[in-house]
Amino acid sequence: MGNLETLFSPERVAVIGATESEGAVGRSVMENLLDGYEGDVVPINPNADEVFGLEAHESITDVDGVDFAVVVVPPQIVNTVLEEAGEAGVRDIAVITAGFGESGSEGAAREQEMREIAEEYGINLVGPNCLGVISTSIGMNATFTTKSALEGSISFMSQSGAFISAVLDWSSDHNIGFNDVVSLGNKAVLDEVDFIEHWGDDPSTDVILGYLEDIENGREFIDSAREVTKETPIVVVKSGRTEAGASAASSHTGAIAGSERAYEAGLKQAGVIRAESVQELFDYASILEGQPLPDNDEIAIVTNAGGPGVMSTDAVGDSGLQMASFADETLEALEESMPEEANIFNPVDVLGDAPADRYEQALDIVLEDPNVGSAIVVASPQTIDFRDLAEVIAEKQQEYDAPIAASLMGGETARNAKDIIDEVGVPTYFDPARGVKSLDALREYSEIKTTDYDVATDFDVDRERAREILERTKERETNKLGIEAMDLLDAYGIPTPDGAIVSDKQAAVDAAKEIEGNVVMKIVSPDILHKSDIGGVEVNVPVEEVASTYDDIISRARNYQPDANILGVQVQEMADLDAGTETIVGMNRDPQFGPLVMFGLGGIFVEVLEDATFRVAPVSEGEASEMIDEIDSAPLLRGARGRDPVDEDGVVETIQRISQLVTDFPQILELDINPLVATPDGVEAVDIRATIDHEEL
Amino acid sequence: MGNLETLFSPERVAVIGATESEGAVGRSVMENLLDGYEGDVVPINPNADEVFGLEAHESITDVDGVDFAVVVVPPQIVNTVLEEAGEAGVRDIAVITAGFGESGSEGAAREQEMREIAEEYGINLVGPNCLGVISTSIGMNATFTTKSALEGSISFMSQSGAFISAVLDWSSDHNIGFNDVVSLGNKAVLDEVDFIEHWGDDPSTDVILGYLEDIENGREFIDSAREVTKETPIVVVKSGRTEAGASAASSHTGAIAGSERAYEAGLKQAGVIRAESVQELFDYASILEGQPLPDNDEIAIVTNAGGPGVMSTDAVGDSGLQMASFADETLEALEESMPEEANIFNPVDVLGDAPADRYEQALDIVLEDPNVGSAIVVASPQTIDFRDLAEVIAEKQQEYDAPIAASLMGGETARNAKDIIDEVGVPTYFDPARGVKSLDALREYSEIKTTDYDVATDFDVDRERAREILERTKERETNKLGIEAMDLLDAYGIPTPDGAIVSDKQAAVDAAKEIEGNVVMKIVSPDILHKSDIGGVEVNVPVEEVASTYDDIISRARNYQPDANILGVQVQEMADLDAGTETIVGMNRDPQFGPLVMFGLGGIFVEVLEDATFRVAPVSEGEASEMIDEIDSAPLLRGARGRDPVDEDGVVETIQRISQLVTDFPQILELDINPLVATPDGVEAVDIRATIDHEEL
User: Kindly report the CA angle at B143 between A411 and A405, in degrees rounded to 5?
Assistant: First the structure.
């Protein structure tokens, strides 16, 4: 999409469908624009001479110099109006009108046409089926909400317009301001990626917030978000999380929600901070907007009471933060300046009779400690004056470069002190756990900001051979990978057991002679799914029995299924399963995120315990390593219970090579290497299943 | 403890240490009592003639008819004063003074003496080191807080006095009232169990809340709470949850915090609703105080917007509630009365232009549906008037017997409507997830209230033989159970493999002949821990090799450790491990809850994946069954991956028999049956380790 600068700072705005009719959306939009917008407002309405005292034009084509148009006409004529606007040179348009993709096939067709018009004219189109756009820096509220936004540096996009109405009503009450607000609607043209890219370059935006029910293009989102979060944090509530929620999402917005596993992997890979609730969304936004990032993960707690100190310590334990270990000088200084009964270890207890200046002494000491990255000040209303304490906190926040949160544990007394610390961006909550969690979001962003995303390795593979193998499957009537499976892995450099697929007895014997030790023999037929059940697999076959076993296997298969297309017998080296650990590397395609690579331990671990982890491909070396770290059963690969640690590098490389394979070939719809046997000396893919999309070939 | 009636409704209260001195605790207590308490206040102070215009007495012994005394004198004279009070017949006393168990050995000795005095005189003693007691129904604030409590039906105990100060300050701002408030302090005499029992019988208490850092006597707590929660819900924040938190708890209050696993099991067994945060504590309390319990687990959502509907549905997915499936008549009625574009399926979307009466129609229909147990009304500020909607909600809550929560998603507009629904106990939160969570607490309590706790089975065991076996270990120098282990299990009816421990070759052969098939032979020595490593275990020994194997094992052991005390060789039936699944049944003693019985799958499952579950003994049949349900690896016992399901009843019975054994013998400090092999035909305890406390024998 083009530059969105003008969308948020137009000098002349047209309202197509402007009216004074009571209850009409076109009236609300006019009223909101006329209330504070610095530029020109141009009403477009063929049936009116003027609207709210402004000359009304019959068509957008009659007006010059319109930067941005808001469309509120009935759905049937929206596309006509859009073409006129395109002709008139308007390049930024918000379509508020509903009745498109969300409302059946006729609407979907209209939305497709809209997309084409937007493309033809290069229109940055917001919506349709949305609430509009707000840009507080120019006083523009181009929506039909009843409340507008306070000025601030949070830019907010939402896939639910009703949620924007709610947030605006609520945020003005909580003194939370916004830079831009966008209602995404059906995302026919502009989507979340366009806005994060715009806000990432926008110096007025300090934090990007999103309420999203789906993400249109997962991989693009990941790549953009990784760039943007180098400078600007992104916090997202992804709604429609649970199965039940997802079904509501798709029935409502027509969005096909991707699976939770894909979003979990994708948002993490994108460097997005995920809020689990609306409360967290704004808690995180406020602290990210207002405070510096911590130098390290250690937090100091300063409190005037034991109980609240314990609560805060619990919250630290639940977070990614660590309780700071104070330096010796810190302890000495605290010992010197605090009363004897005070606890000088973290959490520091300055005692119930502490006035604000004792807090100040303690804060000065702990914030000087290089081990302390952030601090929370917790106070129960005993003898302390919360306003005095708030002054101290505000001062310290300015004096030191560490983020501070507060928990002034009271009602009215706390409210009365809130404005003092609000001004310096220090949040206060009754529950100290909320403050700790907010500081933890700063820690998380600080980690994201400094992440050096490694690029997926480009292994030297035989892509042409892989293509030929996949094309060969087209000739067959099944979409399963069969005889070609091992060759495909071989083309992408993934170790497989020695062996061959043969179609006569002598070839079987010759193949077995090439292999050291006894062999495994398996029927190869796309029509026989459960090979073992019909006696189609024999293990531990000595070379002298290969010929007779060949006959046995073939005749059992024919017996079992006379019409089966039997391609031959696979003669394979015996994998030393006892010496190794069975793992699974798999892939499924997610509608939003594309190829999702899975890793887990074989057998019960993935199948019963669901101990598996996912990444959106392409998967880099670092990500593949993280995948191993993430599974609960990882110790089994690392020498638990007296085993020898397996070749983790081999596993990591296989994950990456599979990632490369499924990225190179979108025709591979799903794939499982099960098991990939990992031993101390390497890995070997013993079996693979894959489904190929013939249409794509 | 005695009846606590008088503690909360005294007619005459003495303040021992009453004073007018600025900043003194004795002054604050006097001021608080004089502000609203209906009864007599008697100041005791040998150095004053009067305090706040009331005649001051030299000693409590000079005054008649005192029901309740508050003690604020220095710690050194507290016990003297207590004896005087005891002599004077005062039976309810709160000791606010600090300087006891929490402050070193001198204080601990004082606290012990205090306990003895209380016992001698039968004093119901609150504290020491506490804030005091509040009873709103008689206007009594016998604490030194700056704020008192509003009247209500929540009774609240807290192990942190500072937290009470904070809650009182906050709650008056949030219109939350209390019946009684108690600061538990060091719990020298009265503890959480005394108060839940008292409030359980108190008709003025609708909900019991607790902030606890530890529980003194876990089993007693479980038994009392189970009784009380038949009538009155108990909601607890257990602080000091994480390792870091627990260390803060013990450094502060001298409490030895039990492990989180023990509290998790114990609170669940007690039927206590556990709040994870202070916010949850009061969210749950408010809704439990104000609303009826749901008839079933299904919830209806009625909203005016899709996005908030999705958020609410997500929250239902995260809870123990289910999305209600509407009856056909409900869908028909909704279809008839709602606009065409409305979504009549759950979540019901009454559309953005819905006025309050459309909500009313929808609520009337869904609340009539017998499938619907509870409802949440979610509204974004579009055209709706929140006050009108609040009126509708309040009316419906009165009309139907179902609990309702609201999410009026706004700021000032929502605050302005809050009082209307507050009055009927309907909470409203900006985040619909909080409302859903609160309704889920009602569902949880409804389940707790109707739980029929089964009594632990009293199996017919040979307790005398077990005692003798345990006593025999006393003669040895190790506290590990050795040669006697299998006998002990046998005495408690737990199946063990056939076999015997023998100390000569011929006996070994004789023993092997008694056993069908090959045998396992293991060295028996309390000094040899890793039997396999030194060649002390031979499996699959045919009877003809038993004699020579006996010699081999003995000589290897002597060779390895010449000074080892070798008791013999165990000759045991081969357990058919392949046909069975290895499980572990174990026990550890928790300082608060006593014997904690563990169950999990053997090998990696408990040791690497920590997939285990716990219950405080005695464990009933129902609880033992639940334990199997709770582990992630349960499917492996139930036929996953083509296995035959094992004899679950045998596992359940073994858990119970172990529970009985460790309850009968506190001398058993810890115990592991590992593995208990479970097959389709039964279970067999193949190996056991136990540690015995010789002191207790």
Answer: 30
Q: Which residue has the tokens 């507009």?
A: B413
Lowest-confidence region among A105-109, A558-562, B80-84? A558-562
Residues with Cβ within 8 Å of residue B401, at least 6 apart in sequence: B292, B295
CA dihedral B364, B366, B371, B376 (to 10 degrees): -110
Q: How far is CA B492 from CA A661, B574, B617, B659, in A?
A: 60, 22, 16, 10
Structural domains in chain A, sorted by start = 291-450 (3.40.50.261), 498-573 (3.30.1490.20), 581-692 (3.30.470.20)
SS3 A55: strand
CB contact under 8 A, B381 and A213: no
Tell me which residue in A159, A163, A381 faces B165 most closely, judged by beta carbons.
A381
Q: What is the pLDDT of residues A411-421, one digit of tens each?
A: 989 999 999 99
- What DSSP line would sit under A575-598, residue for residue? P-GGGSEEEEEEEEEETTTEEEEE
Residue pointed to by tokens 């027509």: A254
For residue A32, give the DSSP letter: H
Give the whole-angstrom CA distance, residue A256 versus residue A258.
6
Q: pLDDT value at position B250?
A: 36
**HSE-CB of B387 using CA atoms within 13 angstroms:** 4
Partner-chain contact A169 B304, CB within 8 Å: no
- Who has greater pLDDT, B560 or B321? B321
Assess A690–B contact: CB distance below 8 Å, yes or no.
no
Least Cα distance to B569 among B529, B530, B527, B537 occurs for: B537
Please give the C-alpha separations between residue A382 and each of A287, A309, A389, in angstroms, as whole numbers.
Answer: 27, 15, 12
A617 touches A595 (CB < 8 A): yes
State the pLDDT at residue B244. Answer: 45
CA torsion through residues B185, B189, B193, B196, sign: negative
Would you give the distance in Å from CA A270 to the centre of its chain?
6
Kind of pairing, strands A404-408 and A374-379? parallel
Where would I find the H helices in B271-385? 278-290, 306-318, 328-337, 356-368
Taking the C-alpha atoms of residue A410 and residue A407, their distance in angstroms, rounded to an integer, is 9
**Is pLDDT above 90 for B103?**
no
Give the mean pLDDT of B482-506: 86
Q: How confident is the model at residue A253 (pLDDT cuts 50, 70, 90)?
A: very low
Report chain B residues whose CB lies below 8 A from the CB of A147.
381
- The single-letter DSSP state of residue B619 is P
Say if CB A363 and CB A252 are below 8 A apart: no
A-B interface: how many C-beta pairs under 8 angstroms? 259
Residues A438 and B329: their CA atoms lie apart, in Å, by: 47
Binding-face residues of B in 96-135 toward A, CB within 8 A: 103
Q: Which of B310, B353, B389, B434 to mutate to test the interface with A (most CBs of A within 10 A)?
A: B310
The predicted-structure confidence for A280-318, as pLDDT tens digits, reads as follows: 999 999 999 989 999 999 999 999 999 999 999 999 999
Nearest-Cα residue of chain A relative to residue B408: A166
Tens of pLDDT, residues B650-685: 999 999 999 999 999 999 888 888 889 999 999 999
Closest CA to B363 of B377, B347, B382: B377
Give the 3-state secondary structure of residue A305: coil
Distance CA B1, CA A688 (A): 70
pLDDT digits (tens, 9 = 90+) for B428-457: 999 999 999 999 999 999 999 999 999 999
Cβ contact A405:A426 at 8 Å? yes
Nearest to B350 by CA among B395, B392, B320, B315: B392
Can you name the residues that pair with A581 across neighbouring β-strands?
A678
Helices A260-270 and A218-228 meet at what angle, rounded to 10? 30
Parallel, antiparallel, or unpaired: how do β-strands B668-679 and B682-685 relate? antiparallel
Residue A691 pLDDT exceeds 60: yes
